Amino acid sequence: MTTSPATHDSHTNDADHALSPEADSSPVNVALHLAVMARRKPDIDAVVCSDGRDGDGCARWKRMTFAELEAESDRIAHGLVRLGIARGTRTVLMVPPSVEFFTLTFALFKIGAVIVMVDPGMGRRNLSKCLAEAEPEAFIGIPLAHAARVVLGWARPTVRVKVTVGRRLFWGGATAAELARGPAHAYPAVDAARDETAAILFTSGSTGVPKGAVYTHGIFAAQVQYLRRQFEFGDDEVDLATFPLFALFDPALGMTAVIPDMDASRPGQADPAKLIESIRAHGVTQMFGSPALIDRLGRYCETEGIELATLRRALSAGAPVRPDILERFAGALNPGVPVFTPYGATEALPVSAMPSTEILGETRHETAAGGGNCVGVPIEQVQVSIIRVTEEAIDQWSDDLVLAPGEIGEIVVKGAVVTREYYNRPEQTRLAKIHSDESGEGRGDIRHRMGDLGRFDERGRLWFCGRKSHRVQTSAGPLYTIPCEGVFNVHPKVLRTALVGAGPSGSETPIICVELEAADSGADHKQVIAELRELGAKYPHTRGIETFLFHSGFPVDVRHNAKIVREKLRAWAERRLR
Length: 578
What we know:
Layout: H1 5-11, H2 14-19, H3 31-40, E1 45-53, E2 59-65, H4 66-83, E3 90-94, H5 99-111, E4 114-117, H6 124-134, E5 138-141, H7 143-152, E6 161-164, E7 174-175, H8 176-179, E8 197-202, E9 212-216, H9 217-231, E10 238-241, H10 244-247, H11 249-253, E11 256-259, H12 272-282, E12 286-288, H13 291-304, E13 313-315, H14 323-330, E14 339-340, E15 343-345, E16 348-352, H15 356-368, E17 373-376, E18 383-387, E19 409-414, H16 426-432, E20 433-436, E21 445-456, E22 462-467, E23 472-474, E24 477-479, H17 481-488, E25 494-502, E26 509-516, H18 525-536, E27 547-550, H19 566-577
Parallel strand pairs: 1-11, 3-4, 3-5, 4-8, 5-6, 6-7, 10-11, 10-12, 12-13, 13-14, 26-27
Antiparallel strand pairs: 1-2, 8-9, 15-16, 17-22, 18-19, 19-21, 20-21, 21-22, 23-24, 25-26
């Protein structure tokens, strides 16, 4: 997979110069990328969105070119300003992936408003808490979101401007269609400073209360540039956009975003036949999917003998991706086409990436032996360290915190893609951020504590060993989730396992929860347990695990449908053992 120098040059004219993370004094706004693409490829589709089916059952598609997206977002920007949404106005955007999602997002970037994004699936209580913390002054959403806002009182004290995407009912305000009837002339994107807030993106809350990561325009600019460099996107890319947050980057990267017929909040339930229909209809060259979606699609392709010949690469993130899932999905691609497993978090992305070719050819064996999941060498622009594990805040960076290669500790990252704070959460910010100024220039650099455990190997590759909060503190010492589960996941009848603990910290009993493959749901549990114990006996860290519990279907996160919600699983296990 290569990218010609000409492709890089075409992307790095005015937009990349203004948006370069190294150009600290330059004004920056991600919307500038769209303007460049509208000039370079005006008649190429920027967004292609599923729009139902005709009487014969054939898919219909709604399209918008780069020039049309630029012009439409200009008109909406004028309309938003007329309503009173201006630079710095915190604005909730609750619109599913669609043409309107893109036009509104870029319009908000252009005027310099602060976009507030939350996962609707995080639950009513968390949604209410997050929106109250964000104190939004404007709310843009589909009718269902507005109805919930009114009935449940979301951000009632602060919201003063309302925009409905679709039919407006009793709550009043404007509609997106009305905004689009504004002036046809260009809206000049604000010259945003690098440290100016662009968005508040809430974490999914799968490992705690959701928190709003504060994104600056500089962070978005760095992400666009780093993603382009890391994955060598060409000038004719078409992306299957199954995850809204990643889809945001498509127009800025010059990629056509294809929105398939699926519920983006339930990727694990996506219809693989409809995904394949989208891939083939539009010549998709790259896709980003959660491990649950990649697994579902890979199984379908294997069963039906389907090849995804147009794909040049795929990306899967949000939770560790098992080697067998990668192997199955890679089997549907052309030989040598990589499936990357990028590592990062809402607070810092991307950090590293690992191709399936290296995982399947080498590191999967160490994963099966309890070494964790290899997530690759950190990208050149991000500095990664492994520090000693502590629950306490670390106010100031010191090199004395750093562990030697091979030792497991907390992963800490520094770079232009690292967020500096959580919105309205000073205590969580203090626990997650470390101040440093190694430059001696008074810049006040920030390092982010990922809350993840990992280690470096002798080749400088990062290995993920699970969440810090999920380690099991036994009387013999700590056990880490991914290294333990990797040993048991190789059993042919096991879909996945999860390590949890029962009892007080320091003397917890380690428990392996087991979810069997659907075809093996009727397997003899006693026989499977005997075989799992035999696997565990091969390695010192799993040798002492004696308790195995079978679960019909692990609880998973709302964003990717792939992260195991171990807090719920632990409570379930403790009830089973009473």
